[in-house]
Amino acid sequence: MTRPDPTPILELRNLEVCFDTRAGIVRGLRGVSFALEPGKTLALVGESGSGKSVTASAVMGLIQLPGAITGGDILWKGESLLGRAGARRAARLRGKQMSMVFQDPMTSLDPLMSIGAHLVEVQRRHLGLSRRAAAARGAELLDAVGITDPARRMGQHPHELSGGMRQRVMIALAIACEPELLIADEPTTALDVTIQAQVLDLLADLQRDMGLSILLITHDLGVVAGLCEEVAVMYAGEIVETGAADDLFGRARHPYTQGLVRATPRLTDRSERLVSIDGAPPGLLDPPSGCAFAPRCPQTTGACAARPPLRAAPGGHGAHACWNARPAAWEPAARPVQKASFA
């Protein structure tokens, strides 16, 4: 029997991204590290502004001025994607072996191009297909992602489709070259619950059929519960906790992760008010020298004046960056409600 390759398909090591603004240097990512194994799904979770989309943009080589990668490394199957040689390697991979579903399909699709033109362009660029072959395969891709009457949809423009259909078009574009890695940046944003479930079922089906590795960016823990095996929690440009999805929902140790789980509504909850995390994330123009979550944390002590490293949690349940981490106060069985499947 052939052993699976232990090398992660994607690995970030102490990645740092800064933005040079008129007000000063904004440190968007501050030493982000994680690894994604082949065929697995890793969720990046956190509030808006925590650095999730910046991480995805860095992986895809989309950080542009005034932004720049200022430290760390991005590895694809053990080989760097930074530096002159790495940039050439990344250019060959982008769109073909790793692709991305962007957050808002209405602004990601060209309003002046038909759906068919989008699909044809991608395949001609990366696969070298003729226009006719690319058009025929484009219709097959639309059918594969569940769009009815694909031949007619090929001639339509983005504004003629619903939000859910536009998101399916984005997924069709992302899988057109049969990539190994799919980055999905908030793929269910602005969709109603039924369509959200359908899109998630589609991603799960594609992963099973194509052997995709998926990096899912979301703030919705219900999405994580239904699709992901591993979770990395981001706060203020850092990874503050990692672990298996079940472990994080049942044994979260970082106070921020605990707050996120508590803030997720449950069908069994009879309280009149939703739970929230007091305060607001710190600005990254002048980030705290110690623990970034300390001003909002109920467990703060004097040790929090120093920045905590990401270290292994007892019992092998992932890792956390907290001096005073302790298991969550809720029952281990508690976890966000998984979204219904409409497959």
From TrEMBL:
Organism: Mangrovicoccus algicola
Keyword line: ATP-binding, Cell membrane, Membrane, Nucleotide-binding, Transport
Similarity comment text for this entry: Belongs to the ABC transporter superfamily.
Subcellular location: Cell inner membrane
Superkingdom, natural source: Bacteria
Name of the protein: ABC transporter ATP-binding protein
GO cellular component entries: plasma membrane
Domain ABC transporter: from-to ranges: 12-261
Molecular-function GO terms, alphabetical: ATP binding; ATP hydrolysis activity
Record InterPro entries: AAA+_ATPase, ABC_Ni/Peptide_Import, ABC_transporter-like_ATP-bd, ABC_transporter-like_CS, Oligopep_ABC_C, P-loop_NTPase
An individual GO BP term: peptide transport
Membrane topology type: Peripheral membrane protein
CDD domains: ABC_NikE_OppD_transporters
